[in-house]
Amino acid sequence: MDHTEKILISLLNLSPNSVESIHSSTDESNHLSIFVTLARRKMDCPYCGNSALLSKGFYTRSVSVPNRAFEDISVSLKVPRYKCSCGHNISDSYAMSPANSKVSFDSIRLIMELLQNPKMTFSSVAAQTRISESTVIRAFDKYCTIPHIPFPEVICIDEVYTKNNDQDNSKYSCIFYDFYNRTIVDVLPDRKKNYLHKYFQPLQGSKELLNVKYVCIDMYFPYKQIAQLYFKKALICVDSFHVIKHLNESLQKVRIRIMNSYDKDSIQYYLLKQWKSLLFDRTINLDNKGKFNHKLQRHINFRQLLELILAIHSDLKNAYQLKEKYIIFNATSSYEEAKQNFDGIYNDFVEANVREYSEFVATLSNWRTEIINSFIVYRGKRINSSVAESMNATISTLIFNTRGIRNSERRRKRIMYAVNKSGFSLK
Asked: DSSP labels for 336-365?
């Protein structure tokens, strides 16, 4: 067997002992044709165990393999056939492809590797492998095997926009994340309370749910109700990112209300419109070197600009100072400190009486326990939903590129496969 034949055998995922002959040819369009005859070997009848089998020649099968250095490859495989005295016809097994399939294991492996990329669609994988889109989908459905993943001690519950699916009108899928291992536990096609009840009822009271110690959620109330009902031993935590987001949105309303009270040509309107980032972006170096501002006709740095903005209205100054106080409290407090100081922070917001903060004050009151619980540290890390936000970016990329996957089970498997990078078996 020469070197070229050995390369071809390796390309086709065969062993040298299993091949009787192999040769190839390439035409002018760079199409590679490989012709393989499998060697006969001693085997027993799988029906009666008889080892005295009669030869019935060969049958020929075509098998597709992934594109390599050639634009197109075709494989013609001659497989030995046998006849047993019990009346059954038997064909030899071979390692190139699954039974009754023209797609090689090598092609399936390439399909599954490509589908781990959230930017790849079934159609783009089909185009790259020169296999039909329907065959790619069937391969994914068959070989993507997502096992049941038990709920860990800390879970995050979040949702991601996945468009309408083929079962109901839900636009959001509910996703359970493993906070510590940074993986997805499960994906549900709906986040509505009734659907979540249906999902959890078979697990109610199980050791798996009782094992959960902490559940981190945003402020979607059905998540709290579900967590209280099914995770009996867990503390519920509200993700601090969503609390800060709500606070910034409230400050934004204060800014807009005051800005709109001034003429558009005024200095006040200019400051509140053009320099609003100074109220929200804490990464800005306020003590930068000043530059000449044509509107103000003076050299000025960011801190001075912020001081001018806050001097426009007492409500804005109070709202900004409260926002900064809460952010510092959120960033620096331990769990014990949060329990001790939360009510003082809450009272500061109440006494300020900024009308745009009324909803945020209600949030602090309604979610007091869950916000304080968010200061708990688990294995050296404060409990939050940042793991969900980072993985949601991957999911959103997948949904955008695929324009949504209408089949909810296929969508679930594709999301978990792309994020967890597991669940693929050729067995």
From this structure: HHHHHHHHHHHHHHHHH--GGGHHHHHHHH
